[in-house]
TrEMBL record:
The keyword Transport applies. PROSITE patterns: ABC_TRANSPORTER_1, ABC_TRANSPORTER_2. It comes from Phytohabitans rumicis. GO terms for molecular function: ATP binding; ATP hydrolysis activity. This is ABC transporter ATP-binding protein. Keywords: ATP-binding, Nucleotide-binding, Transport. The lineage of its organism: Bacteria, Bacillati, Actinomycetota, Actinomycetes, Micromonosporales.
Length: 244
């Protein structure tokens, strides 16, 4: 949990931001990146955060992840360590696919036999079982992102923070990964906060879309997406809700 004041812990898997402000720098050079952002993501909910470049989307995600300090307000992730996935897969090029996925388990001190079973299970989840012994450079961009997703899932946390994870992929690969992410999210009952520039991607994945204003980032609009799951190619129906 990252907070200026301590709040009661939220339910496991929920994310609650209350009046969150972030200022970078100080004095004349201070940049107000986020201004009084309040947002709750319920356990098991998939929320997409959209907004123009520089509006503070990554800042918000980094604050929830605990990678940076807030200037005001509170962030409560119910005492769990959220997992964070970026646009770049950031795999270790000298390790095999399996060893990349195994790394967080090794760092967590899991015994070797347990690690081996977990890696096999995770590679199965992302359909990469037969690539366990390959090096990252032998994979396509979409496959590398699937390895990064498996490594993120290895952390076994209920909260997944994703910062444009498919932004560098072509449209067809992205569509496939949308289906895979939706399946994994449903099976594992994850709480997901997903940043994207792409409104179509948000409408494809989200239960709820939240729009940030240009800097300083404030929530100016949100809408529920009513679509039966799995959403697949079903056109979404958006139901707007007013925000302050
Ligand atoms: N470390 C920093 N120091 C100073 N200003 C920063 C820092 N990090 C971000 N900013 C500023 O804060 C604002 C929000 O940045 P942020 O990266 O969160 O936006 P974003 O919505 O994620 O942008 P993009 O969609 O382009 O990735 C921007 O104006 C940015 O220049």
């Amino acid at each position: 949990m990252t907070s200026a004041t301590t709040l009661p812990k939220s339910a496991t898997g929920s994310v609650a931001l209350s009046g969150v402000t972030k200022v970078y720098g100080r004095g004349q050079h201070a940049v107000l990146a986020l201004d009084q952002v309040s947002l709750t993501v319920a356990p098991g909910e998939f929320v997409c955060l959209v907004g123009a470049s520089g509006c503070g989307k990554s800042t918000l995600l980094n604050l929830v992840a605990g990678l940076d300090t807030i200037s005001g307000g509170t962030v409560d992730v119910g005492g769990v360590n959220p997992a964070l996935m970026f646009q770049e897969p950031a795999l270790f090029p000298w390790l095999t696919v399996g060893a990349n996925v195994e790394l967080p388990l090794k760092l967590a001190g899991l015994p070797r036999a347990e690690r081996r079973d977990r890696v096999a299970e995770l590679l199965k989840v992302v359909h990469l079982t037969e690539f366990a012994r390959r090096q990252p450079h032998e994979l396509s961009g979409g496959m590398r992102q699937r390895v990064a997703l498996a490594r993120t899932l290895a952390l076994d946390t209920p909260v997944l923070l994703m910062d444009e994870p498919f932004g560098a992929l072509d449209a067809m690969t992205r569509d496939i990964l949308h289906d895979e992410l939706e399946r994994i999210w449903t099976e594992r009952k994850l709480t997901v906060l997903f940043v994207t520039h792409n409104v179509r991607e948000a409408a494809r994945l989200a239960d709820r879309i939240v729009l940030l204003s240009s800097r300083p980032g404030r929530i100016i609009y949100e809408t529920r997406v009513d679509v039966p799951r799995p959403a697949g190619s079903t056109p979404p129906r958006c139901r707007p809700s007013r925000r302050r």
